[in-house]
Design goal:
The protein has 495 residues and is α/β, with parallel strands linked by helices. The protein has helices at residues 45-64, 67-83, 85-96, 100-120, 159-170, 184-196, 211-219, 232-244, 267-279, 296-311, 331-346, 382-385, 401-408, 424-433, 471-475, and strands spanning 10-12, 15-17, 24-28, 36-41, 128-129, 136-144, 147-151, 174-178, 204-206, 223-229, 248-252, 257-261, 289-295, 350-353, 372-375, 392-398, 416-420, 438-441, 461-462, 476-484. α12 (382-385) links the parallel β15 and β16. α2 crosses α6 (184-196). The chain is globular, with a radius of gyration of 24 Å. It binds nicotinamide-adenine-dinucleotide. Residues 151-156, 178, 180-181, 210-211, 214-215, 218, 229-231, 234, 237-238, 252-255, 286, 387, 389, 415, 456, 460 line the site of nicotinamide-adenine-dinucleotide.
Length: 495
């Protein structure tokens, strides 16, 4: 497979088209900014409106296509993605920076989502209800919304689009999809699987660009619903603007995910999972571990273990073998990480390891920073409260279980969390008390399976959950049907 791509175009009404403005931007390898992988068109409001018009025209025929047929197309897309997974993973590593095994894992997850969601086409069930009146048949059916907008970030550029596109399609909606400008190549390769699987022209459209494209999607009267994943800053705007226009909106946003390590935990396991959760994907997962909340009694032993494991991590281009951690996705993202090291310095935090850019040899051409641990961080320090979205772990020492839960719940976010303990009572209490949408016991904060709902609480998530059967809830609405089969006018008692 070539390490470069041609200019990536919009996909509107079944055709690859250039941007009306003629604008394009370079797609650069974050592991080596000297390498321009290719370019992508930069769309505007006019391109976006053309895509929305196409989706609107295609809506009637698509909603009338039997759901199992729509499901078949997802199965075909799944098979194609499986055949192409190595190429998609390489493109993902080259433009986003995660290691090749990590990228392949992401593609496998997308394949699982396609498999699961294709089956949902056979389960778009409603129900029947007994009526208060004789010879009156009452049932509910699920109906598609119409044109939906899907707006996605760069950090899971295969998986997140797939976990939105698949349920939207299977439910009978037509789509305008806007990937992140940082990951257009994987977006194109992902889209190709659906196109080659036979999704008809106009049903699935892709427009590249930034705020212009995104806000046109949110504001356009023909878009019925918006499914957004990204930062809180943009998500809040999308939610507010969507709500003002009475649209259905689903936003999955930032996280500040904790692990809690109790004094009866298997400390080797807790350390290994904490390091994996904090530095896997360069800490650029919404589910990354960014806080380790540890009971005083075992804090020294845990810190010693995570320090030793962290120091063994090999930082470098994810496309090479034997690399544990790739670069930040962009110079801007790297600068954000480095700015938090300045914050840590100004707050007098205790640096255990890392805290710097990695720029030895050729790595100076990429956006690498060292995996970093700060110890004895107060629960209300900026590093313990704000999403860094990079390889930075804050250790928060606490005296007991109650303070651990308080510290864990003290952030505005609530995506995922873990507890390490052998005490089943604590596990159950943890599930009751923790304010996160997903929680793990004795395993890392990251990870979610295709058939299980995914999403956060508090400032992390608003709207219905993604993935699993619940994904269909967002992309459909209910109709309640009353069929009187007496043929007579009756004195109804139904109000
Ligand atoms: P971002 O908010 O900068 O961008 C997300 C998308 O919104 C991009 O496609 C972007 O071009 C688009 N956008 C920009 N301005 C817009 C506007 N005015 N209107 C509409 N769309 C607009 O986020 P990012 O940097 O791409 O991604 C990182 C963030 O995503 C992190 O905060 C991370 O936690 C979050 N994330 C959350 C989840 C989750 O499920 N909770 C999953 C992955 C990533």
């Amino acid at each position: 497979m070539s390490e470069q791509h041609e200019r990536i175009l919009h996909y509107i009404d079944g055709k690859w088209v250039a941007s009306r403005s003629g604008r394009a931007i370079d797609n650069v390898n974050p592991a080596d900014a000297r390498q321009v992988l290719g370019s992508v068109v930069d769309g505007d409001a006019e391109d976006t409106k053309a895509a929305i018009d196409a989706a609107k025209r295609a809506a009637a025929a698509w909603r009338r296509t039997p759901a199992p047929k729509r499901g078949d197309m997802l199965l075909k897309a799944m098979r194609l993605m499986d055949e192409r997974k190595q190429d998609i993973a390489r493109a993902l590593t080259l433009e986003e920076g995660k290691t090749l095994p990590d990228a392949l894992g992401e593609v496998m997850k997308a394949i699982n989502v396609l498999e699961f969601t294709s089956g949902e086409s056979l389960r778009l069930n409603g129900s029947t209800m007994p009526s208060e009146m004789a010879r009156n048949f009452v049932y509910t059916l699920r109906s598609p919304l119409g044109v939906v907008a899907l707006i996605t970030p760069w950090n899971f550029p295969v998986c997140i689009p797939v976990w939105k596109i698949a349920p939207a399609l299977v439910s009978g909606n037509t789509i305008v999809f806007k990937p992140s400008p940082l990951t257009p190549w994987t977006a194109k390769l992902t889209l190709d699987c659906f196109i080659d699987a036979g999704v008809p022209p106009g049903v699935l459209n892709m427009v590249h660009g930034g705020a212009d494209v995104g806000s046109t999607m949110v504001e356009h009267p023909d878009v019925r619903a918006i499914s957004f994943t990204g930062s809180n800053q943009i998500g809040q705007q999308v939610y507010a603007e969507g709500a003002r226009r009475m649209k259905k909106v689903q936003c999955e946003m930032g996280g500040k995910n904790p692990v809690i390590v109790l004094d009866d935990a298997d400390l080797d396991l807790a350390a290994a999972c904490t390091v994996q959760g904090a530095f896997g994907s360069t800490g650029q997962r919404c589910t990354a571990t960014s806080r380790a909340i540890v009971l005083d009694a075992v804090a020294d032993q845990l810190v010693e273990r995570i320090e030793a494991l962290t120091k063994k991590l090999k930082v470098g281009p994810g496309i090479e073998g034997g690399i544990d951690m790739g670069p930040s996705v962009s110079e801007m993202q790297m600068k954000k990480v480095l700015s938090y090291h300045d914050v840590a310095k100004s707050e007098g935090l205790r640096l255990v390891t890392g805290g710097r850019r990695v720029d030895e040899g050729d790595l100076k051409h990429g956006w690498f920073t060292a995996p970093t641990i700060y110890d004895r961080v107060a629960p209300d320090a900026r590093l313990a409260q704000e999403e860094v979205f990079g390889p930075v772990l804050s250790v928060i020492r606490v005296k007991d279980w109650a303070s651990a839960i308080d510290a864990a719940n003290s952030v505005p976010y609530g995506l995922t969390s873990s507890v390490f303990t052998r005490d089943i009572g604590r596990c159950m209490e943890y599930a009751d008390e923790i304010e996160t949408g997903i929680l793990h016991v004795n395993s890392p904060t990251m990870g979610g399976e295709a058939q299980v709902p995914f999403g956060g609480v508090k400032a992390t998530g608003v709207g219905q959950r993604e993935m699993g059967a619940t994904a269909i809830e967002f992309f459909t609405e209910w109709k309640s049907v009353y069929i009187d089969y007496t043929g007579a006018k009756r004195d109804s008692k139904i109000y």
